[in-house]
Amino acid sequence: MAKLTNADYRLLAAFRYEMRKFLAFSERAAREAGIEPQQHQFLLALRGLPEGTRPTVGAVAERLCVQHHTAVALVDKLEERSLLLRRRSTTDKREVLLSLTPEGETILRNLSALHRQQLAEVGPDLVEALQSLVSVERPKDNRRKS
Questions:
Q1: How confident is the model at residue 51 (pLDDT cuts 50, 70, 90)?
Q2: pTM of the prediction?
Q3: For residues 32 and 107, what is the distance between their CA atoms, to the nearest angstrom?
Q4: Cα 111 from Cα 72, distance rounded (Å)
Q5: Looking at domain 6-134, which of 1.10.10.10, 1.10.443.10, 2.40.128.20, 1.10.8.60 is its CATH number?
Q6: Pairing relation of β-strands 84-88 and 96-100?
Q7: pLDDT, tens digit, 9 for 90 and up, residues 86-101
Q8: Element spanning 121, H or E
């Protein structure tokens, strides 16, 4: 295992600090919009699924790195709030597909615009912290292989 220096710890801490500032902003913005941060993350993950990915609970759970039952609980809450719809697939009745309601789209659009603005402000500091961290000279055996 590589020996870490005080500078390494400072770089890691600086990156973590910049990330945490953005995440704190994100959590606050979601709550001010009237939803919980995890609900915002779910809406964004659903809307931002990679092209060709079916909008299922499993697909969103994977993108959020949560268990299926956790994603189902979020779907239940979002559906209760009329921000999300569930419907059975017409081709495979076992499959449940998800979609945002117009209200869900509006909340997500507003939050996403705020996040883009915030990233325009703090992004350079976040990128600089990450760049400093990944550009630190490492021994050859610790470098990521292509």
A1: very high
A2: 0.87
A3: 11
A4: 22
A5: 1.10.10.10
A6: antiparallel
A7: 999 888 888 899 999 9
A8: helix 102-134
